[in-house]
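Box S2. Input/output pair 1.
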Amino acid sequence: MMEVLLNKLYEQNELTQEDIVYFLEHLTPEYQKRLFDLAVETRKKFYNKSVFMRGLIEFSNYCKQDCLYCGLRRSNPHVERYRLSESDILDCAEEGYNLGYRSFVLQSGEDFRFTEELMISIVTSIKSRFPDAAITLSIGERSEAFYRALYDAGTDRYLLRHETASRSLYESLHPGMSFDHRISCLHVLKDIGYQVGAGFMVGLPGQTHNHLAEDLLFLKELHPEMIGIGPFIPHSETPLKEAVGGTVQDTLVMIAMARLLVPDALMPATTAMGTLDPTGREKALRAGANVVMPNLSPPKVREKYALYENKICTGDEASHCRTCLEMRIIASGYEIELSRGDHCRVISPK
């Protein structure tokens, strides 16, 4: 049965929910290794050995939401909040551009002090200074009008992880938020024309194999250009501080299965993986990932952007981050790609 399911996953890029649950329940080390090998083979069909570098700028740790797992939740009084100025953000982008990056990810909590007008100014300033660079926003749920205005201003991509495709699990973790609205935002972003990123956490309290199967099938249906999958890491200042958390191994399985179900996706080897395991990002590359996002934020604020604790690389200069990641990627048998790194379906970049 496992042989049949693995072949179906690889050759047809599909499984039913029942198939996925059975596969996860019966996954032996031998089949796991084959799963990872097939994921790497599939990624190479679309992106060869390239690992795409995105310069990450975490420009605000203010957030209006109160997600139970996140260290930036509004109810956490111990966060030292910060906002970078537009000038600070441009300086980060310039440093990254000089280091060779042609793709920038601007990420924050849901901070509505960064209005549509201000975000348009930031995006147009970066685009005018670095016209050959791509811009990704990861700033949460906004209105359709906001999304359209930022797309028209030159934003290329938008990351909005769905976190979990289970309505009941989502609502248990996101007080005051709407599962339907979250999913609607992703469809609106797709309709507007963004290269869209979705994704989920592995190891959430109460998460089952059925929930993980729902996540994978949601991704197959949505077919986003980018998929971010990382382990849940408990934060000591959240209601889930006593939770067990996710594992690198379980996350690797989800990365590999997502690669086979959505074979042309761009998928990051996340910092969270490197936080749990010194070679976690390299393991993610060997399970089908093909993106890394070195941090361009000023070192003085990096520790303050703590979705989870003990995040790696918070004290490194941007140049050291790039050098360290390059060495790791090359040692893993892959090649650095510093271009815009668009999805393979994108023919003419904005």
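Box S3. Input/output pair 2.
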Amino acid sequence: MARQYSGADNFAGAEAAYRSALDIETKILGPDSVAVGETLIELALQVSNQGRFDEAAGLFRRAAPIIESASNPTAQARLTFYRALDAANQRNFSAAFTYARDAVTAWQDIIGATQSPGADGSDIAPPVSASLEGELAHGFWIEAEMAMRLDDMPTAETAAEEALMIISEQPELPLWWRPEIVLLMAEINARQDRVVTAERDFTDALAMDRKLFGDAAPTANVLMQQGQFYADQQVYAASVASFRDAFSILAKDSVARSQIVNDQIVPFLTAATGLGDTTGQRKALEGEMFSAIQLVGSSIADQAIAHVVAREAVADP
């Protein structure tokens, strides 16, 4: 349940589910068990995703000695990777890139250790599990995102291509990963002025997310990124159309609304202003601009509502 919530960007729901799991594991296995340590870092990540960084840091500190004292390289690699995600949430992209690269190296070492010849003396290495390939792909994915934020586009493109290759070839990985990595490729291509390729990637990512999630937070996120892309290209009518579709989703989804930040709204204001009155809809656009600004202002209340709804849902069998 927690992973399903997280996959749909419902971080409050994921937090509530992980807290319930943590209570059960602590009672059954004890507070210093590896299972508790692993759940603590999962919980820390969901707390970080909601911007409560001091609380997340406390959870990571609580988990670190448990995981680091255990002979469990998988848990140790995941702790490093989650610290990368936490640093990225705080916009400390340099630290996030370092953590992500360390995590990729750790996952490659773990995979390498599984690739010794079979016990029967054959020279054929055993297949890599889907879970390990997924961890490595996710590591490359975040490495690519952080490299892009640091304007290291060659590294970003190389890491993103590695992630996309793994995700495309491993059918057991979550379906929603593919549109996410295609969306990342769209951003990388846009940053390198490959406009036609980037537009195709945005369109493909949007189609996949609509199929997987319908009108929910992930779809709204792609629409807003597509809108920003068109705004950057000064294709203002297409930008406004993308944002309007996103806002119609946000109007019905408090969880999606609670995640909106200023940076996501500014491109719409730019596009709406650039469009001016060329469509004879100046008054309508001014009203939409005001409503868009209100989306950011309402996020705190929406977060509180989302938290309550998630906790009630978890408590309801």
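Caption for Box S3: Confidence is low (pLDDT under 50) at residues 299-311. Residues 93-113 form the longest helix (21 residues).
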